[in-house]
Records
---
Amino acid sequence: MRITDETGKLFYVGGVVRDELLGRESFDVDIVFEGNAIEHCSKFGEVVRVNPDFGTVRVNVEGVEIDFASTRSETYPRAGHLPVVDKIGCSLKEDVLRRDFTVNALAKSVKTGEIVDYSGGLNDIRAGLLRVLHDGSFIDDPTRIIRALKFSVRFGFVLEENTRRLQEEYLANINYDTCYKRIKKEIMETFNLNSQEAFERFYDEGIYKLVSPVAIERPEVNVPEIVAAVGVQVPWMVYVGGMDLSRLELTKQEQRVLNDFETLKNTPLDDDFEIYKAFDGTAPETLALYAVWAERRPVERYLQIKDIKISITGDDLLSLGIKPSKQYAEIFDAVLKEKLKNPLMSKDEEVRFLLTL
Ligand code: ATP
């Protein structure tokens, strides 16, 4: 993609600058214009979308969609809720200083390639430190505590001392009147990294209290191992499903995973047959949730026996002269129970067995 700038007012900002300095690939490119981006940047290509409230414009530049933002300053009239835009077209400095961490507050001039660092972000990148830009940062926006966990897991960074103290202070005095939609988004992004370190720190540092004040003990299990064994593709719920998620506005499907988990907790799992019947057809997320937050052993057993299937069908029973009725299910269950004890049973052996019933 080719963007040229003669004004010196166009800057790459945030993650893309950080990622380049870290030698990592960036997935989205944020560009700000010090001034009104809608007026200045629409000329770079075909305008896809404009948002005058935020001063942003999405432009298709040679087949790549790029978001250009006007520099803007923000304030938080209600702590924990979305900020309001104070001024569109403020100075670059004001724009970067509203951001979450110094490592995300770097800008790079499109014209000269020079890095603009108003907050010591370059030093913090070198030292591997996550540092907030002011002491009220977590009060303004507690989602930053989860973002810190996410970035520290992704980059191997640690919280700078004062930032750690501010996190502890906030977690000792949480404002539950907050925007949980954003908390949910950060929780999803953090735990979809599938990281044991994130799991341990989330509970051990008390970060989970952002979601629910009810005390919870972290299970001593390796979650990524369970996620891999069960084959969960999108694992975030496995990491947090043991606690009260009612503040997170779950989708129907997410709620179903939790409900199924609750039902399983009250289902006897004392032998292979009970385990098979309880877990058969259960979503992988629910299975993994059970393994992490209830008991691992029955899930491991289920994974060993889940491919055992009986061969006889309704047609076989019919040809043996057994009339279709509720009895069919009982017969299938009895054969399955036997086959779980003797997985190598052939179809003939199944038939012989059912005739003894
Ligand atoms: P990545 O996309 O690689 O996860 P990113 O840093 O680009 O990382 P985004 O969530 O896309 O993360 O945010 C883009 C930029 O917006 C950040 O780099 C940061 O400067 C700013 N930002 C995002 N969320 C917040 C927040 N909650 N508070 C303050 N600034 C934020």
---
Amino acid sequence: MQKDCNKVWQNCLEFIKDILPDNHIFETWFLPLKPLALQDDTLTLKVPSMFFCEWLEANYIGELRAAIKKELGEGGRLIYSTAIDSSTVGQDVTLPSNDRLATQNNPTAIPMNLETDMKDFPNPFVIPGLRKVKVNSQLDENYSFDNFVEGSCNRLARSAGYAVAQNPGKTAFNPLFVYGNVGLGKTHLVHAIGLETKQRYPDKTVLYISAEQFFQQYLDSVHNKTTNDFLQFYQMMIDVLIIDDIQFFANKQKTQDIFFQIFNGLHSAGKQLIITSDKSPAELSGLEQRVISRLKWGLCADLQMPDAPTRVEIIKRKLRKDGINTMPEDVIEYLAYNVSTSVRELEGVLISLLFQSSINKSDITIELAKELIDKFVKSSAREMSIEYIQKVVCDYFSIPVSVMLSKTRKGNVVAARHISMFLSRKHTHNSLATIGAKCGNKDHATVLHACKSVQNSYDTDRRFRADLDEIERLINE
Ligand code: ADP
Ligand code: MG
């Protein structure tokens, strides 16, 4: 029976993959689904979350239904099973699949005071001064999806953002809350969503605004006694509102109040909200609980620092966009592997490197790159990265990093893996668990064992010692 359900789902996947416009959607929304059981003509799928399930139902029910029909015939049925959380394994909720076209926003969620306020609102189109307002979207064309390199660091946020742009206000991602450390692409991504929305729906009014600008506008409106206009502008004119760096609202009570009203008004009218922050909603301090709870209504997706290969791609994409093809490959790799703080810093070093070499009419070399990294990247954050160590070790043994990260136990590969762990332990501040996770998903005990074994070989084997000394020299170069 188990085999059958796997097979059936496998066939469904193949079918769905063929009919979807884009492989990306397939990987994000279909690959994570796991077949659990097949009873009579009912296939049960394990879905990562309730939200995931709503999204599938809202967007891909047609594809799912067609696949099920093809595999199981007219009577085929699909049931989703969602683990509520990992501690309640075995207590899954099952949700029968249905025909809902889209997940609707809950209209009862509008607070009463807003409803009463709403009654007093005059029609914005008869307000002098607002009548012919052409809203400047403040979107930057450079921050497009095309220029945004995808990686596992941003996959969820990116694909949710893309989905929002295809269907603003109509997805379960409302608000879409994107958070992450500074310089990891939040602003870029939300611009990309805005641009893509404009591309698809030229008639929709999109507005990008930083939380600081919003705050200033609000202060001005209080000063000029035009707060009503301010409120109406946001509630009536905007279809997609993007507010960047909402952590700026911390401890600004009145601004939070007005934001809360605008949020409710837009959300209940089916308008899209996109919000960024440098912290997750749970970690945002100085924001009212009711505001935080709104932020969690839709999807919260984080951005992580891209891994080194993605960083290589980011540099290449940027160079290509600027029409530069003179940067040697080894310098690109050196930069990518050595700047692991933020994409912004990576770009900063890249720009100064190009600048320096052009004013001095000198070649772009690793030496110059190193000099600039030393100068520009914060020293506290410039600790050697595990990825860089792995790269040097693997280059030394002439094996690809991907092989070292695989399960292979061939002689050199095991040595490279163990030496990478040993040197990461010695030269970085990462925990054994982190080192293990990054060196082929090993646990901390394996790392500890590897470190001991390397030390042992170093103490007893002259050739091994020479190798290790040379590798250490290379990583410190
Ligand atoms: P944040 O708003 O999170 O502080 P930004 O959006 O300003 O970060 O990004 C900093 C810089 O890094 C920008 O120039 C942006 O284009 C670039 N960047 C970040 N992530 C990516 C990515 N995945 N692909 C291409 N460029 C990126
Ligand atoms: Mg930003």
